[in-house]
Amino acid sequence: xxxxxxxxxxxxxxxxxxxxxxxSRAIAQEERLVLGQSAAFSGAAAQLGIQFxxxxxxxxxQLNAQGGVGRRQIHIRQLDDGYEPDRCxxxxxKLIGEDVFALFGxxxxxxxxxxLPVATKEKVPFVAPFTGAMSLRQPFNRMAFHLRASYNDxxxxxxxxxxxxxxxxxxxxxxxxxxxxxxxxxxxxxLALQNLKPVVTATVERNSVDVAKAVAxxxxxxxxAVVQISAYKSCAAFIRAARKAGYGGTFYNVSxxxxxxxxxxxxxxxxxxxxxxVVPSPYNAANAITREFVAAAKKAGDVQVNFSSMEGxxxxxxLAEGLKRAPKPSRDGLVAGLESIGDISLxxxxxSLSPSNHVASKFVELSMLxxxxxxxx
Length: 377
Hints:
Layout: H1 8-30, E1 32-39, H2 46-65, E2 73-80, H3 85-97, E3 102-104, H4 109-121, E4 126-127, E5 144-145, H5 151-164, E6 170-175, H6 178-192, E7 200-204, H7 212-218, E8 225-229, H8 232-244, E9 250-253, H9 259-266, E10 274-277, H10 288-300, H11 307-325, H12 331-339, E11 342-346, E12 349-353, E13 365-369, E14 375-376
Helix pairs in contact: 2-10, 2-11, 3-4, 5-6, 8-9, 11-12
């Protein structure tokens, strides 16, 4: 095989170009600010990770197109944990070993519970996990920042709605892990304030749709409503099986279920299913932040508009706001920047952060599936 021979001049020019290219790559690397995200991108909770990530990337892409923050481009290094704690723990160690700037947008309670202690020990900010568990909020942790309201806030509104309607026989179907138990605790506490308690509880294993035992335990008690604390596939399986078994009551879910994913799983069987929400409706154009998000998603062309992607978008906006206010481009700087946000509005969505408050929002409202794939608020 014949290889062309470079003249001395051409070799020198080529070497010089390679050096310049190498320097450019080094500068580009220095100007990248990389966040680490371990989330479910496969398995029974995959749509939660996929949609949250898409919304967050949309916001960061917008910011990067405007020059980033301090000329730094923000990127997300994503690793799939399948919504399994052991895999999440490995991913977290790997991301910190790669020296990511912060951990961002972890999906779920069981995964976040194993990741936060690692982040705390290594003094890496842990920002906007997709969970409302109180165990991640109390006791106060300087490294942890939350966008969303808690599961206690969500379940309090659900119980208030049910009891206002005169529905007091309430059952709880929950995932058999720290997420499910966090939701169960919220329901139990809210009911106790009215001298009530769940009429029956039943569980499903994480990443499983084996709901037969739970249906057999709950349906015979004929509750007025079933509050569900699980992910979309198991909740959809329970709703279908319970109705097939003759149950005629109503179903309530907390936001983590993944509203659009649940609607897609259920189709026409979703009619009347209620889901609490912790971000403004992405379908209500009356909200300025919704108009902004929908316009950006439409321009991008590959981002689905739903509650999960909306939350990712808002979480990214919150983190970016902290970066803009950071006194220096460091992890401590990000913490200080987020704590200096105070009270602001992102297109009508109120955020409040301070050195003593790391939970940005208490917003909760109820939505209902219509049975034709849509969500009404």
